[in-house]
C-alpha cells in the first residue's frame, strides 16, 4: 500500500515538472534576440583630381671614375724611385712622372744610333758641296742644329729627284727613322700622368724588376664619376642625353645632381633593358659608392598617383558611395616601388587614401575628413 502511494506521488511530481518546463519554453519562444551593434569603420579618403603626373624611374648602381687609366709597362727595367711614392692614394698632377724605369743601357744604344746618323750625314757633305751645291746649305744647317742630348730634328725636305736618290742611297733616311723609333721606345721608360688624379692601385714597388706587358696599377680622375643603370626598353624613346637626374646616397641620405651623359643604342637581349650612363660631380663622392637615381622619363596626362597597396589584383580600387565601399576598374600605367600611376578615375570620385584591413564591396565606412566630401555624396 505504501509503495503505491510513493509511486503516485512521484508520478504527480513528474507531470507537474513537465508542465512547468513546457510553460517556460513556451514563454521564452517569442523573446526578441539581442541586436548586435553595427561597427562602422572610419577611413581616410581623398577627392580625385586628375592632373599631369611625371613618371620617375628609379634605378641604382655604383660609381665609376669617368677618366680611368690602367697602367701597363711596354718595356723592361728596374723601377726607380721618383719624387712621389707610387702608392694607392697618392695624387699626381697632369704631366708628373708616375713611373720611371732604369733606361741607362737603352739610352746608350739610342745615343749610339744618333751618333751614327750624324756621322753618315757628315760623310756626304763634301759630295753635296760638289754635286748639289744648291742643297748643301740646308744640310749644313741641319748638322749645326743636331744635338745628341736632344730629340733628333726632322730631316730637311728633299725637293729634287736626284737629291732624293743620293740621300736615300747613302742610307740617311732609314738611319733617321731607326733613330726616331728608338727614341719613341725610350720615352716608354717614363709614364706620366695624363690628367690630375689619384692612384687607386699600385702593383709594383721601387726597386722591383718590371717586365714588358706587366700591369703596374690604376690611375683615376676623382672629380667626375659615371653610374651605369639598366632601364626598361619601354623608356628608350623618352630618355634624352643631358636630362637632369637626382642621385641619393642610401648611407647618409644626401642628394647629388647628375645628368644623362650617354645612352646605349642597343637593347640587352637577355633582360630587355637599355644601359644609361649618368655623370655626376661632387667632392664627397668616391669610386664604388652605391647611389639611387631618379630619372624623369615622361609626363602622363589626366592621371593620379596613389599608394600601390590601394590597387587590387583585379586592377580595381575602392571608392566610397553613400557611405559604402564599392570598386571601379582603373588603368595602371606605371609602377614604382611605393606608388602607382592610374588613369580612368573620374574627377570628384572619393577614394581611399590608406588601405582598410578586411575591406569589401558594400562595407559601411565613415570618412575621416568630411570637409572633402562633396555635398551630393553626403
UniProtKB/TrEMBL annotation:
Residues 68-216 form the Multidrug resistance protein MdtA-like barrel-sandwich hybrid domain. InterPro entries: MdtA-like_BSH. GO terms for cellular component: efflux pump complex. GO terms for molecular function: efflux transmembrane transporter activity. This is Multidrug efflux pump subunit AcrA (Membrane-fusion protein). It comes from Winogradskyella arenosi.
Amino acid at each position: 500500500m505504501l509503495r503505491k502511494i510513493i509511486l503516485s506521488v512521484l508520478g504527480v511530481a513528474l507531470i507537474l515538472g513537465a508542465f512547468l518546463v513546457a510553460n517556460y519554453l513556451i514563454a521564452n519562444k517569442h523573446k526578441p534576440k539581442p541586436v548586435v551593434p553595427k561597427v562602422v569603420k572610419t577611413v581616410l579618403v581623398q577627392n580625385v583630381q586628375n592632373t599631369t603626373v611625371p613618371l620617375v624611374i628609379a634605378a641604382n648602381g655604383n660609381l665609376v671614375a669617368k677618366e680611368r687609366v690602367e697602367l701597363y709597362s711596354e718595356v723592361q727595367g728596374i723601377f726607380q724611385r721618383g719624387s712621389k711614392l707610387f702608392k694607392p692614394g697618392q695624387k699626381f698632377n697632369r704631366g708628373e712622372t708616375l713611373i720611371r724605369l732604369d733606361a741607362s743601357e737603352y739610352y746608350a744604344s739610342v745615343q749610339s744610333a744618333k751618333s751614327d746618323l750624324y756621322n753618315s750625314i757628315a760623310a756626304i757633305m763634301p759630295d753635296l758641296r760638289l754635286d748639289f751645291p744648291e742643297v748643301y746649305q740646308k744640310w749644313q744647317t741641319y748638322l749645326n742644329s743636331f744635338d745628341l742630348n736632344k730629340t733628333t730634328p726632322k730631316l730637311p725636305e728633299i725637293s729634287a729627284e736626284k737629291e732624293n736618290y743620293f740621300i736615300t742611297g747613302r742610307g740617311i733616311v732609314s738611319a733617321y727613322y731607326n733613330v726616331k723609333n728608338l727614341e719613341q721606345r725610350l720615352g716608354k721608360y717614363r709614364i706620366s700622368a695624363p690628367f690630375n688624379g689619384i692612384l687607386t692601385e699600385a702593383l709594383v714597388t721601387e726597386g722591383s724588376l718590371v717586365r714588358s706587358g706587366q700591369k703596374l696599377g690604376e690611375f683615376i680622375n676623382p672629380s667626375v664619376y659615371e653610374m651605369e643603370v639598366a632601364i626598361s626598353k619601354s623608356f628608350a624613346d623618352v630618355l634624352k642625353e643631358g636630362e637632369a637626374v637626382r642621385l641619393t646616397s642610401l648611407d647618409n641620405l644626401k642628394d647629388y645632381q647628375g645628368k644623362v651623359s650617354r645612352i646605349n643604342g642597343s637593347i640587352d637581349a637577355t633582360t630587355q633593358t637599355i644601359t644609361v650612363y649618368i655623370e655626376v660631380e661632387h667632392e664627397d663622392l668616391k669610386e664604388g659608392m652605391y647611389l639611387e637615381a631618379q630619372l624623369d622619363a615622361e609626363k602622363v596626362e589626366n592621371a593620379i598617383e596613389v599608394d600601390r597597396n590601394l590597387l587590387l589584383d583585379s586592377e580595381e580600387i575602392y571608392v566610397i558611395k553613400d557611405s559604402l565601399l564599392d570598386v571601379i576598374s582603373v588603368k595602371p600605367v606605371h609602377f614604382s616601388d611605393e606608388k602607382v600611376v592610374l588613369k580612368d578615375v573620374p574627377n570628384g570620385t572619393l577614394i581611399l587614401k590608406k588601405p582598410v584591413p578586411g575591406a569589401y564591396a558594400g562595407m559601411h565606412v565613415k570618412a575621416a575628413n568630411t570637409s572633402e566630401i562633396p555635398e551630393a555624396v553626403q
